[in-house]
Design a protein that fits this description.
alpha+beta, D-amino Acid Aminotransferase, Chain A, domain 1, seven-stranded antiparallel sheet, five-stranded antiparallel sheet, 16 strands, about 30% helix
């Protein structure tokens, strides 16, 4: 059954949404703060707290009720579904918004895999195509494609990993190698493996009536030298999902496909005239609630399980579950 409206509205209250973590959490280890995740490293283990923060265009915008629980649960689901195809860093999940993982050395490149000509940001593949570009991150694109159309084949369009507050940059394989961020042999091997993983994700999503449109994979090197998936995989933050059953109708009408991910928020921001520069608009409560419903719907559609949120105040719960 759907999460009650009253539960979602109660979760809008600052004490019931997880935004910042106080200094007492530094007992978990050395802290690194990302846009959404708070990372703590200690004794070869990384404790990752997935907050309810939401970002778009590399800017943190506020919080969405239960977003952290959805992301953490979906990342766990996908890590378990794909570990035989591509190992990952996950050790355990001690709280709905926390995972413990093997400490890895991050590879400073995001492997972005795209299956469709879409996107609303100024750096999106559709924006480049609309401007007349017929090469994107080293990939030749044919004439005659339309917005949201499936690409002739899935492609990897890598991105640099920008620090919090800065913008990621889409680049070609050649540029990455020239900058010394990765060598050709490693890139080629990771490209093959990421395309294979994306195809698996698309097949699983399609079974659930969804189209996995694009995604990004973050990778790291374990102490034993093996390259593994880190951070998250195939979540609504790292991926774009459309409803398969309404895609063709939307394309025929020239409309945007019905989405289940953060694209809903991005489109609202663009409609307000914000695409990453200047101060972002405040997210209205109704938009935050609708975004929460979409995140929850994605979880339930992909996993086939009912989402049952832990509605307790997150800070006391985290302290109890993490022994703080």
């Amino acid at each position: 059954m759907p999460v009650p409206e009253s539960t979602l509205r109660n979760a809008l209250r600052p004490e019931n949404t997880l935004d910042a973590l106080g200094p007492e959490f530094d007992a978990l280890g050395e802290r690194y703060s990302g846009k959404v995740r708070e990372n703590f490293s200690k004794d070869g283990v990384r404790t990752i707290v997935v907050t309810d923060r939401v970002s778009a265009f590399d800017v943190v915008l506020g919080t969405i009720p239960f977003k952290g629980q959805v992301l953490n649960g979906l990342a766990r689901y996908w890590f378990e579904r794909t570990r035989e195809r591509f190992p990952n860093h996950l050790l355990d999940v001690p709280d709905p918004q926390v995972c413990r993982a093997v400490e890895c050395q991050p590879i400073p490149v995001e492997m972005v895999v795209r299956g469709y000509l879409t996107g609303v940001s100024q750096t999106a593949i559709w924006r480049a195509y609309e401007r007349g570009d017929r090469s994107f991150c080293g990939h030749a694109l044919p004439d005659g494609l339309v917005k949201h159309q499936r690409l002739p084949q899935n492609i990897v369009t890598p991105s640099t990993k920008a620090p919090k507050g800065q913008h990621d940059e889409s680049v070609s394989k050649a540029e990455l190698i020239e900058r010394g961020l990765i060598d050709a042999a490693r890139f080629d091997a990771l490209e093959r493996r990421c395309l294979d993983l994306f195809a698996l994700g698309q097949a699983i999503a399609r079974e659930r009536g969804l189209l996995l449109v694009d995604t990004k994979y973050e990778l790291g090197v374990r102490p034993d030298g093996e390259i593994v998936l880190i951070d998250e995989i195939h979540t609504p933050d790292s991926s774009r999902y459309w409803y398969a059953e309404t895609y063709e109708q939307a394309m025929a009408r020239g409309e945007d496909p019905q989405s289940m991910d953060k694209e809903y928020i991005r489109r609202w921001l663009v409609a307000q005239g914000f695409s990453g520069d200047g101060a972002p608009p405040t997210l209205p409560d109704e938009l935050r609630i609708e975004a929460a419903r979409r995140y929850i719907a994605t979880y339930e559609r992909l996993t086939g399980r009912e989402f049952v949120p832990d509605a307790r105040a997150p800070i006391p719960r985290l302290k109890a579950n993490l022994g703080l």
